[in-house]
Amino acid sequence: MEAKALEGVKILDMTHVQSGPTCTQLLAWFGADVIKVERPGVGDATRGQLRDIPGEDSLYFTMLNSNKRSITLNPKNPQGAKIFTKLIEECDVMVENFAPGALDRMGFSWEKIQEINPKMIYASVKGFGPGAYEDCKVYENVAQCAGGSASTTGMLGEVPMVTGAQIGDSGTGLHLALGIVTALFQRTHSGKGQRVETAMQDSVLNLCRVKLRDQQRLNHGPLKEYSQHGEGIPFGEATPRAGNDSGGGQPGRILKCKGWETDPNAYTYFITQAAVWEKVCQVIGKPEWFEDERFKTPELRLPHLNEIFSTIESWTMTKTKFEVMDICNPLDIPVGPILSMKEIAEDESLRNTGTVVEVDHPGRGKYLTVGNPIKLSDSPADVKRSPLLGEHTDDILKEYCKISDDDIKSLRDSGAI
Ligand code: COA
Q1: Domain 10-207+345-414 carries which CATH code?
Q2: Which of the following is catalytic: 169, 202, 214, 245?
Q3: Does residue 382 carry a catalytic annotation?
Q4: Beta carbon of 169 within 6 Å of any ligand 1 atom
Q5: In the structure, what pLDDT confidence band is assigned to residue 246 with cuts at 50, 70 and 90?
Q6: How far is the CA of 161 from the CAs of 180, 242, 383, in angstroms?
């Protein structure tokens, strides 16, 4: 079998719920040996959350913990602490996303970890960076709100909106994974470990940077590409919610397609890219618009976006979202069908590329999961099912700690594993 990019890298994975597990799942797909440490008899809380099959690991858990091995271990138990110390000695990276201070309370501060293994890369997710909120426990939607996403998402004049994309949890996990591999690279020169910290608020803000861009542009006048400008609605002090306007300056909207009356996803995104304006006019049956003085330049078109998009919509409503794609794509007119999760689950190309994968699980049978969205030509990711709670405890104790079967039994009796 081909060697994987991170083969040989040993990850002590103390993560739970979503943000940390997203990170370590990526590292596992790249070939790292990810040892997921879970509390004996309990495990990651998500094993039991949103269960669809009684008694079996939930999809919440199985879809975030592929390709990992699970060991049950309680580092608060004195014998458990010895095993944990040995694992810290042996591993390259430790990842955790506990509430602030939880690892210190276990007796394993960053200072202590460095003492045990100076080459250790210690990576954490917290809700906030140092400051007023550093001690807070934080979940997805809190991060979306505190990171600037919610205030800029939704329709103008309506409540702030969170997005279904888990930018606070999974988004932070992605940032953390990059921090870890960067620290591993630096260690090849420095020989030293280091601390990698990612705050959920910061990660969300990084993904929302175009909205902080617009906040500063507001000091110099209205945001002319926002629909509200064309509608004559004045701007306030902060970047407003912009509905489905595109964030990039080229006007875009979500428009109804054939079947919208009964299908909640019969819509397309449609961008009136300046470079293909003439083709847009032709395709929707309005060739005269190309000569129309009101629409001559992108700037002149801005006050007329409602008229323009409602006319385009009269055309898109005569086509399915896929027909719109088939017609516009060859003309380089940027459009995109609003795909439902059902359509995505059934999408053949996503299956072919391994982005949607079917996996077999001994308890729950076959289920779909999202495979590695990052494709490395020399390190393809084969998705393996998530581990059962403590499935690899004995193997890991023998392999990493050279512990005999008899000693494993007494550790189990003591509650350390
Ligand atoms: N053995 C024994 N105890 C263990 C253990 C193990 N293997 N693994 C965890 N624990 C203990 C911890 O030591 C902690 O105990 P303590 O509070 O007495 O010190 C306890 O389990 C729970 O940890 P905590 O992180 O506080 O869990 P929580 O369910 O109360 O909070 C979060 C969950 C996600 C809010 C919190 O972990 C957090 O804010 N994390 C950082 C931000 C984050 O990642 N949020 C998004 C998650 S998707």
Answers
A1: 3.40.50.10540
A2: 169
A3: no
A4: yes
A5: confident
A6: 31, 11, 33
